[in-house]
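Re-run with default settings, no changes from the original entry. Doing this only to confirm the output is reproducible before filing.
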Amino acid sequence: MKPARHFLTAAAVLVISASPQVALAKVPEPVYDETAARADCTKEWGSDFQMIEYCLNKRHKGFRTFEAIANDAPDSLDPALTLCTEEWGNEWEMVAHCARKQLRAISSMLEHTQDLPKDVGDVILSDCANEWEPDWKMVEYCMGKQARAWRSLNN
């Protein structure tokens, strides 16, 4: 697996580093709770021991993946990673999936506005970040919709 920092463009790191909310939340040190994972998987799968084992392996792999992402990501991403841990709790495979989606969104969000006048792209980025930050996948989605609308109105 590539470290998270490879997903980020220099421009995206500058954007999130300049963001007003980056200091608001520090991602908590991830902790894998084997007892809670076992209880969740057992509740979900009952006496299907093969599926319990599969569920536990998936949770543990997700935890290791998220831990690697959190360790490699710049501190400015902590609010987005915290959002993932708060949304998914100890479902670590989903936490890791959420974190990967956040990283992909940050890496690609500026692509939506690269062909627009700089002032228009800046306004779109600012408006979308103000509305959706620290949920960068929503910032990226908002930017795509706004850029498409601007093109429709101006082409």
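The mean pLDDT is 87. The radius of gyration is 18 Å.
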